[in-house]
Design brief:
The chain has about 425 residues and is an alpha/beta fold. The protein has helices at about 40-55, 65-85, 180, 185-195, 200-215, 245-255, 260-270; strands spanning about 5-10, 20-25, 30-35, 95-100, 110-115, 120-125, 125-130, 135, 145, 160-165, 170-175, 220-230, 240, 295-300, 300-305, 310-315, 315-320, 325-330, 335-350, 355-370, 380-385, 390-395, 400, 405-410. The chain has 2 domains: about 5-240, Phosphatase 2c, domain 1, CATH 3.60.40.10; about 245-410. A hairpin with a 4-residue loop joins strand 2 (about 20-25) and strand 3.
Length: about 425
């Protein structure tokens, strides 16, 4: 039987960058939450380094799971320090992390932990916190400071906490960053965890918990990995994170070269829920590769409505036609990436409060992109190539973040 696992991460409603990251590998029984530290961009770098090290943990015969995880933490620390040595501007960056790996028998787990990310075990007898925060008290009225992290040069002794716990089918495991635990009162969180043990799937658990943090203002990045325990065999797990992207990709490929039925797209967007990036989009990492574009013809007046708490992705297409309007309801996420725009008028994306848009590795050859972004919406632009500045219009007072250069596109050229 496959493990039911899901992950959700969100930048929150205050910060422009997301320095959280996660590992969700149900086929290996391996899961982790990482929270980067160290200021603008550098915490994100440290988190990415740590995630790569933890994701590489092999099922090593004869090596206790917590030992393998602790060794991965040490590798992460060494790589983070090496990166800081190579670029002194990154000195002081670090990350905190909690990682677990389920034993092959499905009856126990091993854990390694540094900092103030957490792991909870929810079973029929109640909730058990499997970690304790490595923090030190600061001045009165200030947030407690992390006492251990993966970027410290002065780490001594047994600086990685390890442990193990017994589990049984029906248990729920939740890993999270302090973007959840710092804003949701402990009593409320524990009650919610008990309730969520009966949720329909792991995705519902992760989405609910991240949504609860956002409902309280989302002052920090927040990440949750949820695992519903069941017997499993390594190599046969199934993550819920990428499922929607796969379905949308298949649908778009099937429609390649044909006219798009706006009603069909609306039905697809309204019916696809509970998986993929959903209400809280996955973190995105910059990619400057423009892949092959499958033609996607647009019927005049095509409209697509993305229902609230749903995701809609266009990836790797040449959008050809007269116009297209995409309306994203509250908490919906729209992603357009590695695509070429060749339309006569507008590709219009209308965001309702709480919705998000990501434009990444997109080249406009004809027409324009018009984004309506009122307050409480987020627009991220990552390497958008334009024939002229007028080919991009953003209306409204939403948060707009440009992480790539927006520039005139060379004739027939590719993104840099």
């Amino acid at each position: 039987m496959a493990l039911d696992a899901a992950a959700r991460t969100h930048a929150g409603k205050v910060r422009d960058t997301n320095e959280d990251a996660f590992v969700c590998r149900p086929e290996a029984g391996l899961f982790a939450v990482v929270d980067g530290m160290g200021g603008e961009a550098h915490g994100e770098v440290a988190a990415a380094i740590a995630v790569r090290a933890l994701a590489e943990v092999p099922p090593a015969p004869g090596l206790a799971g917590e030992t393998a995880l602790a060794q991965a933490m040490q590798v992460a620390r060494e790589r983070i320090l090496a990166e800081a040595d190579a670029d002194r501007a990154k000195e002081g960056m670090g990350a905190v992390a909690t990682a677990i790996r389920l034993d092959d028998d499905g009856k126990s787990l091993r854990l390694a932990h540094v900092g103030d990310t957490r792991a909870y075990l929810v079973h029929k007898a109640g909730v058990r916190l499997l970690t304790h925060d490595h923090v030190a008290d600061g001045p009165a009225g200030t947030k407690r400071q992390v006492a251990r992290d993966l970027g410290r040069r002065d780490a001594q002794g047994e600086w990685v906490e390890t442990g193990r716990a017994s589990i049984e089918p029906g248990d729920l495991l939740v890993l999270c960053s302090d973007g959840l635990t710092d804003v949701v009162p402990e009593d409320e969180l524990l009650q919610e965890l008990v309730r969520l043990r009966g949720a329909r799937n792991a995705d519902a658990v992760a989405t609910s918990l991240v949504g609860r943090a956002l409902a309280r203002g989302g002052p920090d990045n927040v990440t949750v990995v949820a695992v519903r325990v069941s017997p499993f065999a390594r190599g046969k797990g199934k993550a819920r994170v990428p499922w929607l992207y796969l379905v949308l990709g298949v649908v778009f490929l099937a429609l390649g070269g044909a006219l798009v039925d706006g009603d069909a797209l609306r039905r697809l967007a309204a019916s696809a829920g509970g998986v993929g990036s959903g209400a809280v989009p996955l973190r995105v990492d910059a990619s400057r590769t423009l892949g092959p574009e499958a033609p996607l013809a647009l019927r005049p007046g095509t409209e697509t409505v993305v229902a609230g708490e749903r995701a809609f992705t266009v990836r790797g297409h040449a959008l050809v036609g007269s116009d297209w309007t995409i309306t994203a309801r509250a908490l919906a996420a729209v992603t357009i990436e590695r695509s070429v725009i060749e339309i006569d008028r507008d590709l219009a994306v209308v965001l309702e409060p709480g919705a998000e848009l990501l434009l990444r590795d997109v080249r406009v050859e004809r027409g324009r992109i018009r984004v309506v972004a009122p307050q409480s919406t987020r627009v991220t632009i990552d390497h958008l190539s334009l024939p002229s500045p007028e080919a991009l219009v953003v209306e409204g007072e939403g948060t707009v973040r440009r992480t790539g250069v927006v520039e005139p596109a060379p004739a027939g050229g590719a993104l840099p």
